[in-house]
Design brief:
By secondary structure, this protein is an alpha/beta fold. It has one domain (13-479): Alpha-Beta Barrel (TIM Barrel). The chain contains 18 helices and 15 strands. It has helices at 3-18, 23-28, 51-54, 67-72, 90-104, 115-118, 128-143, 159-165, 171-188, 201-210, 222-246, 269-282, 284-292, 297-303, 312-318, 368-380, 407-425, 468-479; strands at 36-38, 44-48, 108-112, 147-153, 194-199, 252-257, 262-264, 325-328, 334-338, 345-348, 385-390, 430-436, 455-457, 464-466, 481-483. An 8-stranded parallel barrel has the order 2-3-4-5-6-8-11-12, surrounded by 5 helices. It has a 3-stranded mixed sheet with strand order 7-9-10. β9 (334-338) and β10 (345-348) form a beta hairpin. α9 runs parallel beside α11 and α11 runs parallel beside α13. It starts with a helix and ends with a strand. The relative contact order is 0.14. The structure holds 6-O-phosphono-beta-D-glucopyranose (BG6). 6-O-phosphono-beta-D-glucopyranose (BG6) is lined by residues 50, 199-200, 203, 258, 328, 359, 389, 436, 443-444, 446, 450, 452.
């Protein structure tokens, strides 16, 4: 940069401050900006949370115990020794939190319903006071012009079902889930028009049933893990049927899945084709069987004697048509190249030096949010996709002036959203985006140590403070465009 230029730039900035404007605020007012790449008209901007991560009030109004209450209270399971007993106290502060969404200008909010609030025992008599909370929340959202997107299962299974039938090890849990879905559909679809069934089977199943990292902390052999995943897929299908039978006409339903993300290592036609085939194989155990009505030959051959047992009737139930597919997209699972060896594609080892955000698992690869929906739409002929989660943790230090300048989160979002815009511009049918997360919350095994929010939460005082990324996201929403 020449001296002359930097002096000119300085003069410009000084001029702005004389007008009482900071440079970023002034820039935000000059829309449309030449570098602004627009999203399609009507693109839905939202934020996301989940019940156990924010609600607290675990013993109030007849809520039953969930497997995450049990797990988080088991010594050694959560890194900072915390639990979700109080979390963000959202159960009592939901009005303030809806105000935070409104301040962003977001038009949609993805939250989850706590199954054990509605059915403390997993099945049987519903708890009316549990439903009352979601009645209040929905009314508050609608009064503020925010469209609710409800998730039925974001991991807080009623402990009673775990104790009685072994949770997802039994298809009794699939049936109980359908009854719960029917009840929600009958009582809430006058206001909730969009329902996600399951959140991230690709995480809670392996982490909870194979690796023992998440609730319920089991380490089952592969055959039982595959069977449990099949029961979750069955639960999804039964719930879709139950929602259609009990909900208002026009209620839309689909999964919210952390698709195993495959990215072509180098963008050639051969590698793209190989990546499509790999994506289908890696996702056969859940998204594939939902969308194709069968497990792929590759999946069944790989599982061998450990393959799930199923009937043709179950496959039909599992593959009920969905109205949309939600994809939670954070990091690339694997980069792929074409290979002349069987099966024609090869996953490459991930270098240890691959850059990541403050969460080690969160590798930075903005192109993943371009490729994953593009490939999913192609291989399964999906007509409507939502990015049901995307976001990042960050250090989020409070500076002496009380502000949080989370430039790393802004960098991440700017680059990911630019790639998402690229997908929509090419006609990939992505219709909305839910940023994870509205506010810092109980991040599962990391407790309160990892912060993903647009708002910082002080878990002592429960004060919510917008980070700089909240201003960034507000600007994106206002312009329906991303400056790169
Ligand atoms: C997703 C989940 O896996 O990513 C969220 O659906 C979760 O519930 C988020 O909070 C961040 O994950 P983690 O493991 O870093 O807490």
């Amino acid at each position: 940069m020449s001296d002359k230029f930097s002096r000119r730039q300085f003069a410009g900035l000084a001029g702005l401050s004389a007008l009482g404007l900071s440079a970023p605020a002034a820039a935000a007012e000059s829309a449309p900006r030449p570098d602004g790449a627009s999203f399609p008209t009507g693109f839905l901007w939202g934020t996301a949370t989940s019940s156990y991560q924010i609600e607290g009030a675990v013993n109030e109004d007849g809520r039953g115990r969930s497997i995450w209450d049990t797990f988080s209270h088991t010594p050694g399971k959560i890194e900072d020794g915390s639990n979700g007993d109080r979390a963000n106290d959202h159960y009592h502060r939901y009005k303030e939190d809806v105000g935070l969404i409104k301040d962003l200008g977001a038009k949609a909010y993805r939250f989850s319903i706590a199954w054990p609030r509605l059915f403390p025992d997993g099945t049987g008599a519903p708890n009316p006071k549990g439903l009352d909370f979601y009645d209040r929340l929905l009314d508050e959202l609608l009064v503020n012009g925010i469209e609710p997107y409800a998730t039925l299962y974001h991991w807080d299974l009623p402990q009673a079902l775990q104790d009685r039938v072994g949770g997802w090890r039994s298809s009794d849990t699939s049936k109980a889930f359908a009854d719960y879905a029917a009840y929600v559909a009958a009582r809430l679809t006058d206001r909730v028009k969009n329902i996600f069934t399951m959140n991230e089977v690709g995480r809670f199943l392996p982490f909870g049933y194979a690796l023992g990292i998440d609730a319920p902390g089991l380490t089952l052999p592969p055959a039982e893990v595959n069977q449990a995943r099949h029961h979750v897929a069955l639960a999804h299908g039964l719930a879709v049927q139950a929602i259609r039978a009990n909900g208002r006409a026009g209620t839309r339903v689909g999964p919210a899945e952390n698709i195993t993300t495959c990215v072509p290592a180098i963008n050639t036609p051969e590698n793209i084709r190989a990546t499509e085939v790999a994506t289908r194989e890696f996702n056969s155990g859940f998204l594939g069987v939902l969308l194709e009505g069968k497990y792929t030959d590759g999946f069944l051959a790989y599982a061998g004697a450990d393959a799930p047992k199923f009937t043709a009737e179950e496959l039909k139930i599992i593959s009920q048509p969905n109205d949309f597919v939600g994809l939670n997209i954070y990091a690339p699972q694997t980069y792929i190249v074409a290979s002349d060896q069987k099966p024609g594609w090869k996953p490459l080892p991930m270098p240890g030096s691959f850059p990541h955000m403050s969460s080690e698992w969160l590798r930075i690869a903005p192109e993943v949010i371009y490729w994953a929906p593009r490939i999913a739409a192609k291989i399964w002929n999906i007509k409507s996709i939502y990015i049901s989660e995307n976001g990042t943790s960050g250090e989020d230090k409070v500076q002496p002036d009380g502000q949080i300048y989370d430039l790393d989160r802004i960098m991440y979002l700017r680059n990911y959203l630019a790639q998402l815009q690229r997908a929509t511009a090419e006609g990939v049918p992505v219709h909305g985006y839910f940023l994870w997360s509205l506010m810092d919350n109980f991040e599962w095994i990391f407790g309160y140590e990892k912060r993903f929010g647009l708002y910082r939460v002080d878990f002592e005082t429960q004060a919510r403070v917008p980070k700089l990324s909240a201003s960034f996201y507000r600007d994106v929403i206002a312009r329906n465009a991303i400056g790169v």
